Target: Quinol monooxygenase
Amino acid sequence: MRQTSQGVTIVASFHLKKDYLDVALPVVAACVRASRQEATNFSYTCRRDINNPLHFVFIEHWQSMEAIQEHEKQPHFLALKAMLERGSEGPLTVTFLEDITAPA
Model:
């Protein structure tokens, strides 16, 4: 994957199983709070679809791909990953983005 000097933005989307919502919400909130404390994180948020409360979208901005790889080793991320393995409905989609308006 190509490196950029402007960092990397991630958009990740998933759907939860209906009976998993109460389990998932505290895990998602804990991951968001802890991820925002990571030194290489610029922004980390999770939003829920207004029309489908089982559809969630993470929007993250990281310093580098190395920062993302380190994030993926953290306990809060591993807890989220484990919850999604049990509670998601369908595939998790993840897109890595670069800023096209910033100088390369």
